[in-house]
Amino acid sequence: MHQSHKVAVIGASGTLGAVALRKLLEADTFTVTVIRRAGSSSAFPANLKVIDVDYSSVDSLKSAFKDQDSILSLVPTFAVDAQQAFIDAAVEAGVSRFIPSEFSANLTHPNARTLPVFAPKVKIQEYLVEKAKNTGLTYTFIYCGGWLDAGSHRSFLISSTGDTTNIFDGGDVAFSASTLDTVASAIVATLAHLEETKNRSIHVHSLVTTQNHLLALAKEVAPEKPWHTVNLKLEDLTAKANVRLAKGLVDFETFAPYIFRAIFDPSFGACYERTDNQLLGITYSSDEDVKDILRDLLKNRTKD
């Protein structure tokens, strides 16, 4: 009898986590366990196995990871450091695959790796690569570009209200972008293609687009909205961010320009020339698909 692949998911209630968890359960080929931080109020379906752990305790994590084949980490950017303990516990528990929290900026590009906001992610990657050399643990880094439909709190690509969009470097810069559904599908497909995705980075996207093209589609969907724009230069924004960082100000205002740089600047690997879409069975989105996404974003925003 075929043994079901056991996956432990950390951060399963977040923006991407909720979509990835749903996709894993729908696939019906995995035995899924949710690893929840002790004291968290996140709720999950009653029939799902949930283990509460102390994220800082390797012993607590090791006990939760026992008998798991893969660990999927979907922790938010500010919690990326916690993954070192996850990796140590995974090694001790005999886990065979670790997928760290990436899913957006293309950290295979040397320029993107120098951006201060990603320093903790780069450190975790280097730690994983070292561990994979002399333990049974393997890894996959998954990159999907900017998120098209992550809602108002992450509307980096285009306004989710129809009001004002910040346009970077003229708005005609091509970049890779993905829906949350595409990102989640890439995760599930990676776990179904363990050999082909072993100890490497994979790149997928729903489409390559520009901010001006997204705005043009948005105006078709909601012509009644103002769709104002503010033109900004990435170079100016990052220069200001560098000044703030030098003063020790480590907040969203400081780090956001570095994220914009990674999403929109081609010299930071923002537009994927080659993808693993075919390997992982990821389909591309059409303009009509994007219009549907924009309709949903605007509709959900109106409900808020």
UniProtKB/TrEMBL annotation:
It comes from the Eukaryota. This is NAD(P)-binding protein. InterPro entries: NAD(P)-bd_dom_sf, NmrA-like, NmrA/Isoflavone_reductase-like, PCBER-like. Coiled coil: none annotated. Keywords: NADP, Oxidoreductase. One of its GO terms (molecular function) is oxidoreductase activity. Residues 4-148 form the NmrA-like domain. Pfam families: NmrA.
